[in-house]
């Protein structure tokens, strides 16, 4: 299973970006899909997650600004980011927790996509 994240870039404060993560490989059932971020010199933090029922969870620092969604048919997970702030500058990583098939079980990470928000 491989993940490929895209959609990062440079944007001014107040702007928007949409991140996309494509999932390659056999994934019959995915428990959760999530986005994390890591700023320079800081730990990697959970930004948002969505489970197989569509239930979502957001970090406090993005609530009301970011929206996570998933397209199971296309094996993609998205992160719509609005009202971006300079503090949102980080490398964003997608993560999936695969349940089935058994050979694919596990947690997988994408390569990361850089988001830079200028003031």
Quick recap:
With 119 residues, the protein is mainly β. The protein has strands spanning 2-6, 9-12, 17-24, 29-38, 44-51, 56-58, 66-71, 76-81, 90-100, 106-109, 113-118.
Tell me what the structure shows.
This protein is mainly beta. Helix content is 0%, strand content 60%. The protein is built from no helices and eleven strands. Strands 2, 4, 5, 6, 9, 10 and 11 form a seven-stranded mixed sheet that branches. It has a four-stranded antiparallel sheet with strand order 1-3-8-7, with no helix packed on it. It is elongated, with a radius of gyration of 14 Å. The N and C termini lie far apart (37 Å).
Mean pLDDT: 96
User: What would the principal axes of the Cα set say about the shape?
Assistant: elongated
- Sheet with most strands: 7 strands, mixed
Helicity range of the residues? Answer: under 10%
Distance between the termini: 37 Å
With helices defined by DSSP (H or I, 4 residues minimum), what is the helix count?
0
**Per DSSP, what share of the residues sits in E-state strands of 2 or more residues?**
over 45%
Number of strands: 11
Spatial extent as radius of gyration:
14 Å
Order of helices and strands: EEEEEEEEEEE
Low-pLDDT parts are none
Q: Which structural class fits the helix and strand makeup?
A: mainly beta
Descriptive key words:
single chain, 119 residues, mainly beta, seven-stranded mixed beta sheet, four-stranded antiparallel beta sheet, 11 strands
């Amino acid at each position: 299973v491989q993940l490929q994240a895209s959609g990062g870039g440079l944007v001014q404060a107040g702007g928007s970006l949409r991140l996309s993560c494509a999932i390659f490989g056999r994934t019959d059932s995915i428990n959760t899909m999530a986005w994390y971020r890591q700023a320079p010199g800081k730990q990697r933090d959970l930004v948002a997650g969505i489970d197989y029922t569509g239930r979502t969870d957001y970090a406090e620092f993005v609530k009301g600004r970011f929206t996570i969604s998933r397209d199971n048919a296309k094996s993609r997970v998205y992160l719509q980011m609005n009202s971006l702030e300079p503090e949102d500058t980080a490398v964003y990583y997608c993560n999936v927790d695969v349940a089935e098939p058994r050979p694919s079980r596990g947690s997988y990470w994408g390569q990361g996509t850089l988001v830079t928000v200028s003031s």
